[in-house]
Structure formats: C-alpha cells, structure tokens
C-alpha cells in the first residue's frame, strides 16, 4: 500500500510542536474507506495517529479535519470517549494538506453488525454500550464545551431537506418516482422545531466505534468529519436505517438476521434504551426521522454515482456499486413513512 506521507516532515514538525516526541517515526497507513487518509505513527516512546486531508484540489467544506480536531478536543472530559487530541497543523507546506495528531487508542473495530464470533451476552452488552455512547453525545451541551457556533441555527430538518434535495436534483441521473414521493412527504410532514439543538456525529455506526481489546466497552468514537450542531434523532434514526440494510459487506445491516437468538437488540429496544438514557418518555413520529435518513443517504449516494459516471470518482467502479443502492434507499424511505 502506498504511504503517500512525508514522514520526515511530520517527524520534524512534531519535534518542534510536541515537546518530548523523539524519533524515528514509523508510519503505517490504515486500510479501509476513510475519506481522510489515516496513519499510525510509532515512536520509541509512544504511538500516535495522524489524520490528514487528501492531497489535491478539494471541495471547500469537504474533508474537514479542522472540525474533527475541534470537536474531539472539545469533548475531552465529557462522557463521550474520544482519543486525546495533541496538535492541528493547518500549514499545507508541511505535508501538502492540513492534518492533526491524536493519541493511538488500542481497541477493536467491527464491520459486521451481527458481530460473528462473539457470545450472545457480549453482543448484547456491545449494543448497550453503543446506545449509551450515542445518548452521551447528545447529552453534551454545545455551549458548555465551546461548540455554540459549530452549526447554524434554525430547523435542522428543513435545512437538510432543502440542501440534499438541491444536491439530488443537481446529480440526478434517473427518474425515481419513489424519491420524488419521499421528498414531497418529508416536506409535508416536517415536525415543529422542538428546541433540541445538540451535537450530532453524522455517521454514527458500529464500524466508527473502537471497543476495548477485551471488554464490551467503547474506548473511542471515530470519524467526526460529518459532525455538526443539529437534531439528535437524526443520529438515532441513522442507526436503525443501517440495520435495515442487507447483512453483506456493502449493506452492513441486519436484515434477515435472527437477532434474538444472537443476543442482538431489536430496533425498538435500542430506541427505548436510548430514551431511557436521555430521560425521554418516547419519540413521537419516529417514522419521519427514519424516512429522512433514507432520503439523505439516497441523495448522498446519487452524488457518488454521478461522480463515478463522469469519471471524477477515486474508484468509479465502487462508486457505481454504491450508486446502485439509491432506488433501495428511496423505496425503504417511503416504506418508513407508514412504519
């Protein structure tokens, strides 16, 4: 695997910026689908992780490592498990793009939400940890941790519906009546703003969580690139949406899995436990939030498909593969409206 990292420049910068860091550094690039390239840095005394923007010309708001660094630094000392942040470098002259350095946290990641190879009790406890950690994120007061300006004011769902409808129309390649109907339904059933202006992760799912090496405990929440100030039920509904996908490497869902026999929680148990952890009596009209998450994912994947068709994707074949899910997300979003 190509490293694509000037390790000598990183080592020199860290020696100046982080007193006590001694070389030589050994860098290893993490595999996987991170949009921000990520590397483990091993020094004689300690191990770190470097996250950088990809080199080259980028969309203005894309690959925001500066936001990732800021939000995780703000969460230090809260009940949300995050790696310790050390330093942000916005000087592109060092390695060609902005990057930040954080602690390396030892742990386990899982791609398959069915958690094969674990006991039923361990699976249940891990889902409980996943639920408690999500509630902990949403319990954070943005003002109290210095994130009051981390996202705009106003009705989060109306803002998101307008944004992603515009994006979808700009990248549309096929006539999808289900998507048109879903957009109309969301606009006609927009809930009133209930004042819940909280930190949202934006991509909260099993494979973005780091579990302790030998315990069903989350030691770090990863990949905060899409985090913002918004409405917490979008994160919750996104978890339920993901589980409705096929149990395949692409789908990473639980459709067709006998959850009860495996110790995996039902959708309703996860929602009820989340409400209990946040002190809520329940969630009214959950079908809206679930339908919204399907709509947003369909719009995102439509953009991926469009870039692949135009030859602008880093992996066009993969882009087309993901783009094929657009009709399914639109259909399941419409089905969620009658859930």
Automatic annotation (TrEMBL):
CDD domains: ACAD10_11_N-like (cd05154). Residues 27-249 form the Aminoglycoside phosphotransferase domain. It comes from the Bacteria. It holds the Pfam family APH. This is Phosphotransferase family protein. It comes from Roseovarius gahaiensis.
């Amino acid at each position: 695997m190509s490293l694509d990292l000037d390790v000598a420049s990183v080592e020199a910068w860290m020696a100046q910026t982080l007193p006590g860091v001694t070389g030589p550094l050994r860098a290893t690039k993490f595999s996987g689908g991170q949009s921000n390239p990520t590397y483990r840095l091993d020094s004689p005394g300690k191990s770190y992780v470097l996250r950088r923007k990809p080199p080259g010309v980028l969309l203005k708001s894309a690959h925001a490592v500066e936001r990732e660094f800021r939000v995780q630094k703000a969460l230090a000392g809260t009940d949300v498990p995050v790696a310790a942040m050390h330093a942000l470098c916005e000087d592109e002259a060092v390695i060609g793009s902005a990057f930040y350095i954080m602690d390396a946290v030892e742990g386990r990641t899982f791609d398959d939400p069915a958690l094969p190879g674990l006991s039923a009790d361990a699976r249940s406890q891990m889902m409980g940890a996943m639920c408690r950690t999500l509630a902990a994120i949403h319990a954070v007061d943005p003002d109290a941790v210095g994130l009051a300006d981390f996202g705009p004011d106003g009705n989060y769902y109306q803002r998101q519906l307008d944004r992603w409808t515009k994006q979808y129309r700009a990248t549309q390649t096929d006539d999808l009546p289900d998507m048109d109907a879903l957009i109309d339904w969301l606009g006609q059933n927009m809930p009133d703003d209930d004042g819940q202006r909280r930190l949202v992760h934006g991509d909260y799912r099993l494979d973005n969580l780091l579990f302790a090496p030998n315990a069903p405990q989350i030691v770090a929440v990863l990949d905060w690139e899409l985090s913002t100030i918004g409405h917490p039920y979008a994160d919750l509904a996104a978890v339920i949406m993901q589980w409705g996908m096929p149990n395949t490497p692409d789908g990473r869902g639980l459709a067709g899995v006998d959850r009860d026999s495996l110790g995996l929680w039902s959708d309703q148990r996860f929602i009820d436990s989340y409400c209990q952890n946040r002190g809520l009596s329940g969630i009214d009209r959950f079908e809206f939030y679930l339908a919204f998450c399907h709509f947003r994912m369909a719009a995102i994947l439509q953009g991926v498909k469009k870039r692949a068709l135009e030859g602008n994707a880093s992996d066009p074949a993969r882009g087309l593969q993901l783009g094929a899910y657009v009709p399914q997300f639109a259909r399941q979003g419409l089905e969620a409206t009658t859930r």
